[in-house]
């Protein structure tokens, strides 16, 4: 059954199902093509007739990956989808920013009907420019490093103008995202132009304060004391790459004009080099690494957390599945490269023989020293100034989001919780206990979107996080309760190691 809604840019025709309404492929900004490549998002050209919104729009340009099998070469990709209950009333709005490593992913694959109908919320799942199209910078290019963030701000402004037509309350908007999406939510907590556009924030496996050891992401990845580049660093990186590729030549016109004539096919091949927003420009003046611990962020309630075994996904994909499983000798070498003189101390805490394989041991080292510490530091920074609730998704039997190599236990790996929230093409093969956990998680998330507090009737109590009482809620099919997060991830050990320098 069709459903027609009047927007500020024209009418759209969506679909009505038994319990929900679905509108897909709604443009929220003009196509960022030609002269609009690497420009702030511009208004949509209004359309006179009813526009079909029953099919998804184009994904943003990207190459397929093992973790995101999506391919696109179309820059006309600034679309969003709305899933809304059929019931009346003004409902909380939840705007989802997808993950995918910064150069992959799309909003359309996240089927939000379970969340929308069971919890009576309106869910918006947008695309925004990725990789080199969203995070590129170059000398003389205004707004470099922030085009993807600006797209997301345009989505939030679209919500303010139009979401009431779908039953949503523009005065109650929650911005939530996972992985790269969570990183962007963290950026919006700091970005001046995002102030007032959302009223709560949920950061799932975000890594705004993550410090990665050498080889922590993949073989050969460098030690990263921060995940954020400055615009100065971004422009130097871009200038070097552009020079190597010969995209700018003397006598052929201004550099930016030449770059806007480079084909999508050429750009997408190096897109992943530009996988993070940059700070130092108008969109994100200050690094979140500095701003968040200093309390310089928008005062909205925050729900944040991660998965029990975050790094197993990356070790499985980029080491074992790539034909480079870590050996016992290799594990020792990795510890030395990452921790130098402290390598023996780390090996005593994480002996390879205590794990199924040395690869799993390395994944747990990285999961604790980088990911768990990041969640802990992020929660401590926020909780000083705003209501903060922290969780850990702990279902080690969760269905893997990608195939894992034989003999590599996925555990509660990075992004394992997402199929509990959304259907990704098809429902995940959850057992009865896991389905109950999925429903409980969505109830917590929706309660938080409704009031800034995840608690509600018939739910296990979830206390706020504070430095005095750093409570982390463990989300597991068999039990939902507080967990000894710091001890579980040996955070005192890692803090002492960091203090030693």
Automatic annotation (TrEMBL):
Alphabetized InterPro entries for the sequence: AB_hydrolase_fold, CarbesteraseB, Type-B_Carboxylest/Lipase
SUPFAM superfamilies: alpha/beta-Hydrolases (SSF53474)
Domain Carboxylesterase type B: 3-494
Gene3D superfamilies: alpha/beta hydrolase
Protein name per the record: Carboxylesterase/lipase family protein
């Amino acid at each position: 059954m069709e459903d027609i809604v009047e927007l500020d840019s024209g009418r759209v025709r969506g679909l009505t199902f038994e319990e929900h309404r679905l509108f897909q492929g709604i443009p929220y900004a003009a196509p960022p093509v030609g002269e609009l490549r690497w420009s702030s998002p511009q208004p949509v050209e209004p359309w006179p007739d009813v526009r079909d919104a029953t099919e998804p729009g184009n994904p943003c340009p990207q190459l397929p990956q093992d973790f995101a099998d999506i391919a696109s070469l179309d820059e006309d990709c600034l679309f969003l989808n709305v899933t809304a209950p059929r019931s009346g009333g003004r409902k909380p709005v939840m705007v989802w920013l997808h993950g995918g490593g910064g150069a992959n992913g799309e909003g359309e694959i996240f089927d939000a009907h379970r969340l929308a109908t069971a919890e009576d919320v309106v869910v918006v799942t947008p695309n925004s420019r990725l990789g080199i199209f969203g995070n590129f910078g170059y000398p003389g290019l205004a707004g470099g490093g922030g085009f993807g963030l600006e797209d997301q701000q345009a989505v939030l402004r679209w919500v303010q103008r139009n979401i009431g037509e779908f039953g949503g309350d523009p005065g109650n908007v929650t911005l939530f995202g996972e992985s790269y999406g969570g990183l962007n939510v963290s950026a919006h907590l700091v970005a001046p132009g995002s102030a007032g556009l959302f009223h709560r924030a949920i950061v799932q496996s975000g890594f705004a304060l993550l410090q990665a050891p050498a080889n922590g992401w993949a073989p050969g990845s460098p030690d990263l004391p921060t995940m954020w580049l400055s615009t100065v660093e971004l422009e130097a990186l871009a200038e070097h790459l552009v020079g190597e590729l010969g995209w700018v030549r003397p006598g052929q016109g201004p550099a930016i004009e030449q770059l806007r004539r480079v084909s999508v096919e050429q750009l997408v091949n190096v897109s992943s080099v530009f996988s993070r927003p940059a700070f130092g420009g108008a969109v994100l003046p200050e690094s979140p690494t500095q701003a968040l611990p200093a309390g310089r962020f928008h005062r909205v309630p925050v729900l944040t957390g991660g998965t029990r075994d975050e790094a197993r996904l990356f070790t499985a994909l980029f080491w074992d599945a790539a034909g480079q499983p870590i050996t016992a000798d290799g594990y020792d070498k990795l510890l030395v490269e990452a921790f130098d003189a402290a390598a023996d101390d780390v090996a005593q805490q994480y002996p390879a023989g205590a794990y199924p394989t040395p690869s799993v041991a390395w994944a747990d080292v990285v999961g604790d020293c980088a990911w768990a510490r990041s969640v802990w530091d992020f929660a401590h920074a926020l909780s000083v100034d705003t209501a903060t609730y922290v969780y850990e998704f702990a279902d080690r039997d969760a269905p893997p989001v990608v195939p894992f190599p034989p003999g590599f236990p996925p555990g509660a790996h990075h992004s394992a919780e997402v199929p509990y929230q959304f259907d990704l093409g098809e429902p995940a093969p959850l057992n009865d206990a896991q389905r109950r956990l999925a429903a409980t998680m969505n109830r917590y998330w929706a309660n938080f979107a409704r009031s800034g507090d995840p608690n509600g009737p018939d739910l296990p109590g979830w206390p706020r996080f504070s430095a005095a009482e750093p409570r982390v809620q463990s989300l597991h099919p068999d039990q939902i309760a507080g967990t000894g997060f710091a001890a579980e991830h040996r955070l005192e050990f890692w803090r002492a190691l960091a203090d030693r320098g």
